[in-house]
Amino acid sequence: MKYEGSCHCGNVAFEVEGEFDSGLDCNCSMCRRRGGLLAFVPAENLRLTTPRENLSTYTFNRHVIEHHFCANCGIAPYGEGSDPKGNRMAAVNLRCIPALDLETLTINKVDGRSF
Q1: 10 FRET partner, CA 20 to 30 A, in 47, 50, 64, 94?
Q2: In 18-105, at which residue ranges do the beta strands (DSSP E only) sit?
Q3: pLDDT per residue as tens digits for the range 9-54
Q4: Full-prediction pTM beyond 0.90?
Q5: By the 8 A CB rule, do 7 and 73 touch?
């Protein structure tokens, strides 16, 4: 299924294709602070619908994940990186997809403190 998502002000918007019935609640220093609820999709399943220049990007720790956010409203709708096999992936913040009913999702805790 295809969904639309964005930051709060709409400066960073995207379309993503996937079946989202669960999300990851990560406790790494970044996710813990921003409260994201993540789902991973192949990078080609996410399409930015606003100019890439609207993204601000932050990396930390091993600098392998590009955490994208909006410099205007501060919301982080997605990140990009590679899985252990080298496949490009997008980590979508499910809280940035208005059409999803978050109450119906299974929430899985993940220990990301070693990321």
Answers
A1: 64
A2: 22-26, 38-42, 46-48, 55-58, 66-70, 78-82, 88-93
A3: 999 999 999 999 999 998 888 888 888 999 999 999 999 999 999 9
A4: yes
A5: yes
Q: Going by DSSP bridges, is the β-strand pair 2-6/106-110 parallel, antiparallel, or unpaired?
A: unpaired
Instruction: Identify which of 111, 11, 15, 115 has the alpha carbon closest to the alpha carbon of residue 62.
Output: 115
Half-sphere exposure of 71 (CA within 13 A, CB side): 7
Q: Which amino acid is at 79?
A: G
Secondary structure of residue 96 in the 3-state scheme: helix
**Distance of alpha carbon 51 from alpha carbon 39, whole angstroms:** 23
Contact 12, 46 (CB under 8 A): no
pLDDT of residue 11: 98
What is each CA distance from 11 to 52, 56, 72, 99, 108, in whole angstroms? 10, 11, 7, 18, 29
Biggest CA-to-CA distance, the chain: 35
| Beta strand 22-26 pairing with 106-110 | parallel
